[in-house]
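To fix ideas at the outset, we first show an illustrative case, written as a sequence plus integers encoding its fold:
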Amino acid sequence: MKVLVLAPFSHDGIAQISSFGSVTHEDWRDTDVIWDPVELGERATREGFEAIIVERDFLFDETFAAAPNLKVAGITRAGVNQIDVDAATAAGVIVINTPGRNANGVAELAIGLMFDVARRIAESDRYIRSGSWQSPTAPYMDLRGMELKGRTVGIIGFGAIGRRVAQITNALGMTVIAHDPFVAEPRSEHDYVDMVPLDELLESSDIVTLHSPPAEDGTPLLAAEELSSMKTGAFLINTASAELVDSSALAAELHSRHIAGAGYDIFETTPIEPSHPLSSLDNVVLTPHIGGATDESIERHSQMIATDLRKIATGELPNNLVNPGVWEHRRA
């Protein structure tokens, strides 16, 4: 199998692919190139690539039309919106992805934001750097925070990331409740988690953390009514999707201090617009979409892709097959 990898990839992952095929690795971070879909397909045909692995590039209908010998399209993300799966299926191309590759990284960032807003860490840093620390005792009153132990965390979305957040917050001694319309009961290893309706979660949680996908129609899960129903003095953490929350309504609740603070890693645009309603608030901690930006996430997705390519090359069912119909057709 001849493989073109355009994503960040570990040395070990490249070595694994090299053990059963040939691989060309062109990390977009080094090349600063995003391929035109047609030109990428033409290159695959010209150089004989049977598999293309992407992170930022797009594999569309015209890519598959220009690369009739392509067998595998892989993406080092859970989401496959950068691959036209229907077109790949029609062309007989197997699609693989890497679900959960950054679950721990995002979960740890969410926990970090919880500590930050509850203990006012970033605010304390600004307090010192601005020269505001004039009295030895003033910070004990001006920057008094909240301990996480004994508090209730409400997790909205109980997939891989939400489950990992549950494990960590439980270990911190927090009471864990969760809401997910697709999960009736948590798995046995999460028997300390109570699944509750959304309104109960919002009313009961000292910290609400978001780990669910947005609605297909873009309707915010937490609009003005839902935000106003949150427990007074609670905190909101969003490392999932900007579309989940009405930003203007959240800004109003933060300004009034009904919601005590927020930690945000995801925004409507990347980079954030300077006029964003959260950017001027001193009780909000903002990070630039770095939830999955860890070396371990790269190592993890590299292993997942390399394993599935080896399985495909030897006729075994890959672990993370997006379009099983193609596999069944090829097997037949």
